[in-house]
Amino acid sequence: MKGIIVAGGLGTRLHPLTKIVNKHLLPVYHRPMISYPLDTLARSGIRDILIVTSKGAVDAFMRFLGDEMAQGIKLSYAVQEKDDGGIADAVRYGEDFAAGDHVAVILGDNIFEHHFADAVGAFKKGAVSFFKKVPDPRRFGAPVFTRDGKTVARIEEKPSHPKSPYAHTGFYLFDGRIFDIIKTLRPSARGQLEIVDATNAYIAMNEHDFRLVHGFWSDAGTFESLMQSSRWAEKRASPKRPKKKIDLLIK
């Protein structure tokens, strides 16, 4: 399985900071935000990773990360043409990179304590979503479960009246068909290709599963969640802060 980190977008909720720097390079305590999704993929056993970002940010990512890292991590980069094209639009840039393989997609502002190695190792086909119980599911995609609670009927994007207290977190597993599915999507009312619509396509084919996320999770996309993430990272940080770029990752 290969990994795709979606690290573009406009980051408007973090203006004015994101007017001068890509959101995913902002510090979360003592490490740039992008370090955390890289860690998540590495802990999941994924070593070949594509970072999809904006044209104005790719040079900064490459200066910080390069293309080879500790523990055999290989990095590639793709430039998303439209900063506001949506998550599914960003994922489609990974088609040649994936070369038919399964992909784990993670949003670059998502910080997880949860380990996904078991789910990655068990994945065979279709799509798997990861849900977290939250106090404000209206901010996210929210699942609508079937009556028995064992399957998902659909996922609603930022619903006014969520049908469950769960959020659709920014970690996804897809088989190689995801790229053909994205080609069938139409822009939403926001003018974006929505990853929720791609996931709902798998649900319609009865090829979707879900798991629950345990431990800390944050999307770090607002000032409040960025501060919360930094406080969590501070508690987990080693007494000796890493000094080398390569040591910032894969703990």
TrEMBL record:
**UniProt xrefs under InterPro entries:** G1P_thy_trans_s, NTP_transferase_dom, Nucleotide-diphossugar_trans
What cofactor does this protein call for?
Answer: Mg(2+)
Q: What positions does the domain Nucleotidyl transferase occupy?
A: 2-231
E.C. code: 2.7.7.24
EC supergroup of this enzyme? transferase
Record's superkingdom? Answer: Bacteria
Q: Which residues form a coiled coil?
A: none
Write down the chemical reaction(s) this protein catalyses. dTTP + alpha-D-glucose 1-phosphate + H(+) = dTDP-alpha-D-glucose + diphosphate
| This protein's UniProt keywords | Magnesium, Metal-binding, Nucleotidyltransferase, Transferase
GO MF, one example: metal ion binding
The entry sums up its family as follows: Belongs to the glucose-1-phosphate thymidylyltransferase family.
Q: What is this protein called?
A: glucose-1-phosphate thymidylyltransferase
To which species is this protein native? Candidatus Sungbacteria bacterium RIFCSPHIGHO2_02_FULL_52_23
